[in-house]
Amino acid sequence: MYKNILLGTDGSPAADIAADYAVWFAHKLKARLAALYVTDIRILEGPLLSDLSGALGAQQYSALLPKLQAIQKEKADMILAAVARKAATHHVACKVTHETGNLVQTLLDHERQADVVVLGQRGEHAKWSGGHLGSGVERVVRASVKPCLITPEKFRNISHLLLAYDGSTESHKAMRAGLKLAGDLGAKVTIITVCQREHEETASQFLQEAHEKALAQNLTCAAQLLHGVPETEILEFAGKTEVDLIVMGAYGHTRIRELILGSTTSHVIRKASVPVLLIRG
Q1: Which numeric CATH code is attached to 4-44+70-151?
Q2: Model confidence at 125: pLDDT above 90
Q3: Domain-by-domain residue ranges, the chain?
Q4: Which of 14, 126, 218, 272 is most solvent-facing, going by the fewest CB within 10 Å?
Q5: Confidence band of 13 (pLDDT split at 50, 70, 90)
Q6: Class of CATH domain 160-275
Q7: Which pLDDT band, with edges at 50, 70 and 90, does 261 fall under?
């Protein structure tokens, strides 16, 4: 299923946990792991350095720039070496790459060879983010066309998957991916459908069909119909049942939708205390 895993890392605590999950999945699925560190080109060409150029003069600035580049390379090498050591302890092959460029575009270029992208929920500037999803992470998730695994601040082994299903095309693809992953991991599954009471009959039918598909694949599976606001119910249910991974659909890659994750998707990946696997529509 996922035989090529791409980890985006920035050396932050959240990225370190993302590496734990990437290595864990690579080991369990016998997959190849690639770790990518991107030096944002704006660090070397941004307003601050333009100001320095004006203050120092062209000659002194030209001498300073290689030193800044060397510092960034040294930082990247240290971070990627730590990921490689972590992978080696679990006998996982890991290719490491450092590039300088646009963060989002560089990750998108590398994801072409990946089946899933793993990112920490918050980046290296998390202490100034006010608890929000890292800006780089959210930009990647919005632009990506591959499944994205967004990981929380603590690691735990995955033995129970929560599949959010509402009968839509996106959630149908997520359900199929989630059931396949559960089978590969030997994990149990709980499928939930959240609806308003006036739509209960249709929602119950969707849920029953999904439950039957899971049972047909010989998975240990439970199903639950919930009422209320989807993002609230998904997170509350995940907390009460102690699931280890939420699998859900994300909006497809269209001119309008690429700018909008959708309130449910966005809220869940911001607030979840367990990893969230987003399957593209």
Answers
A1: 3.40.50.620
A2: no
A3: 4-44+70-151, 160-275
A4: 218
A5: very high
A6: alpha beta
A7: low
